[in-house]
Amino acid sequence: MARVSKKENAFQANLIKEIKTMFPGCMVLKNDPNYIQGIPDLLVLHNDKWGSLECKKSADAEHQPNQPYYVEKMNNMSFSSFIYPENKEEVLGELQQALEPKRSARVSRRK
């Protein structure tokens, strides 16, 4: 079992709160690291869309075996990314684009 640092746990707990604020009504599920090694830490369910996030305490934190594989595989399905304090704002912006409903262009009916 991979050991998770206190710094990573605190980052993840604050991140979950921030995601729930960004996406009211969403569900944020913490995945069991012992079930499938390498599956991202968090699954975010919002309306009919989903994304997953692998939390790291810093940009240079070590990746466990299979993590890059599953992040890439899940990103090809919907959205998935490594997230750490240094890229948090960028990744949350990308997550927002992936989970928000697409707005169709309004067609003017005026004559």
Classification by helices and strands = alpha+beta
Number of strands: 4
Average predicted confidence as pLDDT = 90
Shape: globular
Rounded to the nearest angstrom, the radius of gyration is 16 Å
Describe the strand arrangement of the main beta sheet, using strand numbers: 1-2-3-4
Contiguous helical run count: 3
- CATH topology category name: Trna Endonuclease, Chain: A, domain 1
- How many domains, as an integer? 1
Unreliable sequence segments = none
CATH architecture annotation: 3-Layer(aba) Sandwich
The CATH class is identified as: Alpha Beta
Essential attributes:
single chain, 111 residues, alpha+beta, Trna Endonuclease, Chain: A, domain 1, four-stranded mixed β-sheet, 3 helices, 36% helix, 18% strand, globular
Description:
By secondary structure, this protein is α+β, with helices and mostly antiparallel strands. The protein has a single domain, classed as Trna Endonuclease, Chain: A, domain 1. The chain is built from three helices and four strands; from the N terminus they run H-E-E-E-H-E-H.
